[in-house]
Design a protein that fits this description.
By secondary structure, the chain is mainly α. It is about 75% helix and about 0% strand. It has a domain at about 60-160. This is Transcriptional regulator BetI.
Length: about 220
Amino acid sequence: MSSTPEDLLPSARIRLAALELFGSQGFDRTTVRQIAALAGVSPGLVIHHFGSKHDLRLACDAYACQLFDDERVFLKDSGPMPSLESWVHDHPDLQPVMTYLVQCLRGGGEMADRAYQLLCSVSEDLLTEAESQGLVRLPADREAAIALLATWSAGLQILSDLFARRLGGRHLTDPEVMRRYAVAATELLSNGVLSPSYTETLRRVIEPSDDQESRS
């Protein structure tokens, strides 16, 4: 939970506790009593604020969406070199939210579909905004590009702790890990990893020529 949970309203403490427990042990294994104990409230207060465990999960989904909306505004307003460390510092609840989304993706079914669609939606919004500002160029097949980038992001989240340890940290949200991640991602996306000649060779293999299309 937040480093200062006593500063949060009971409903916010309940939601953050639910995010942590749903993320660490899954929705089915988490009870209202466990959430109440972690939040420092009574089980009755959990039901009073959210109605049921299912409705509390929906509130967690909505909160995750809101956090990503904050990220979208941050990236839009922060200029060409946003301070990731500053944003992470201002959002201590980021790690529980990401852990929650990872658990949703791992669980499969409706929850995984909802989490993945959220990632796709956020990716599309961010890329559309960046494209309108002339910051990125998307391939002709926008839908495939957006889905691919969202899938890469999901894979990174699932392996985030392993990735962070590889870079000498504990979590993806560690400032130094995020800095190295941002630099490497920027260089890869800006400069690519394939040489121009090899890219052209692959394009000829992947995209049939006019002669090949006419023969088919």
